[in-house]
Amino acid sequence: MRVNADFDRRVVVRFADTEWIPSPMPGVERKMLDRIGGEVARATSIVRYAPGSAFSAHTHDGGEEYLVLDGTFCDEHGAFPTGSYVRNPPTSSHTPSAPDGAIILVKLHQMAADDRTQVGIDLTGSDAPRQELHRDKREAVSVARLGTGEVIALDGPGGAEVFVLSGEVTEGGDTLGRWDWLRLPRKAKTTVTAGESGATLWIKTGHLDHVSAPG
């Protein structure tokens, strides 16, 4: 399966315009943002867990990165409420569940094979204009909190992704609202402007220099 798999193209996916697709596990559905592969894939998705749903125990050979958008996401390592940012490195394993339901933004098979950095951050514990979540030689991940009309530049040579956590922004003639997603190709240069109520953005840069599929 290939979804938005041409990484040399700009892509916008609006949350309201995409359908939930059932996963192999009952009660777990996905909105696919980009994907290369079948059930084991290099993938970026929004995943919804119905109350009481769970996934079987599994190992993330290529790592897992997720942000809890709503509810509480649980595994053997703890309960992660809305606003939690987690990186589980390659070779890590867990049995995820959502007793009360949850929605997460998740990226799979996108880490370096030798990455062993475990990250867990509560985003609600900071109101800083720019909060760095992770940085290594491949990528940088941060949250930007923008005031009304504030402008930020995106000019990373290794591409960029922007996920709107709250508020509204404009970029390239498009307006993006809550839970909309933008991917910019390598060497793209642009600006993002916050709307009247400001915006909070999850931003990743640099990583499109390292695109590969599992296997």
Automatic annotation (TrEMBL):
Signal peptide: none
Protein name: Cupin
One Pfam family, short name: Cupin_7
Top-level taxon of the source organism: Bacteria
Residue span(s) of domain ChrR-like cupin: 9-111
Species of the source: Kangsaoukella pontilimi
